[in-house]
């Protein structure tokens, strides 16, 4: 949820959609296991883009229990040792441009609790449940933020192609413009692929997991052991109105009610509805093919940020991966 993707893609590096860079620039990991328990201590330095390198260094501990039947539960603690990365705070009352807090990430702490069930027998056979929750704090800047996700999935094992239907709800706090504290969640280094922590498909390209929530449905079919087809739908909303969704890019003059005010974020919570159809093929043990098409339908929150009509955002891709 917080510590996964150590490499930045996009912009001067290209490949934003595929996100091929995952490795950290520097990492030190110590692990101790005994029975079903594993403890991990880590120090990580992300491989950030040169144009936006925040000098981030983090350390933490993870304690995880793995059930031989397949389930697990654990807790991760993370501390940001050094950082020049800024945080963004909503203007008081949501009126005015957001405030940039330079270097505010340094000193941020986070605790992440996570769990996933074993495969069930009896009345709950073929069901899967998982949950994640994270809490962040930084006393230097009065940060108190939270985020989390719950999932429930059911596999129709008796039907052809073994359909699996999964419902996901995930939410990440935004900064409340009516309080002096900072509540904007910092997603740190999450994996933003559609099968993990992306909020939507196309929408995840322009927002991060902060001040956003989503209801998601995914239907996965497996015609063969090598072929997988997945249809995903996401209904995406903002948690806080007049508060930055990403980094404040939508700051603008709003004339709602006949008065001109500078605002950021949105004045209606509905951001978008995303649909994504994905096909994956295992060609051989070293080669994988993935293709997909997607569309994002703007909600009232997006449509009211600009004058005129907002078009649907469509896209497609084909990706071949060779492992060697």
Q: Any key phrases for this structure?
A:
about 325 residues, mainly beta, 13-stranded antiparallel β-sheet, 1 helix
Characterization of this structure:
With 324 residues, the chain is an all-beta fold. The protein has 1 helix and 17 strands. The chain has a single domain, classed as Porin (Beta Barrel). The strands form 3 sheets. It has a 13-stranded antiparallel sheet. Strands 5-6 form a two-stranded antiparallel ribbon. The protein has a two-stranded antiparallel sheet with strand order 13-14. A hairpin with a 2-residue loop joins strand 15 and strand 16. The protein is globular and about 60 Å long. The mean pLDDT is 92.
In short:
The chain is mostly beta strands and 324 residues long. Helix content is 1%, strand content 47%.
Q: Identify the CATH architecture.
A: Beta Barrel
CATH topology: Porin
Describe the sheet with the most strands. Answer: 13 strands, antiparallel
Instruction: Summarize the helix and strand pattern as letters.
Output: EEEEEEEEEEEEEEEEHE
Using the alpha-carbon principal axes, give the shape. globular
Number of domains: 1
List the strand order in the largest sheet: 1-2-3-4-7-8-9-10-11-12-15-16-17
CATH class: Mainly Beta
What is the straight-line distance between the termini? 28 Å
Radius of gyration over all CA atoms, rounded: 21 Å
Return the structural class.
Answer: mainly beta
Count, helices: 1
Layout: helices, strands, pairs:
Blueprint: E1 26-34, E2 37-45, E3 57-66, E4 72-82, E5 87-89, E6 99-101, E7 109-116, E8 127-138, E9 143-155, E10 164-172, E11 212-221, E12 227-237, E13 252-254, E14 261-263, E15 270-284, E16 287-298, H1 300-303, E17 313-322
Antiparallel strand pairs: 1-2, 2-3, 3-4, 4-7, 5-6, 7-8, 8-9, 9-10, 10-11, 11-12, 12-15, 13-14, 15-16, 16-17
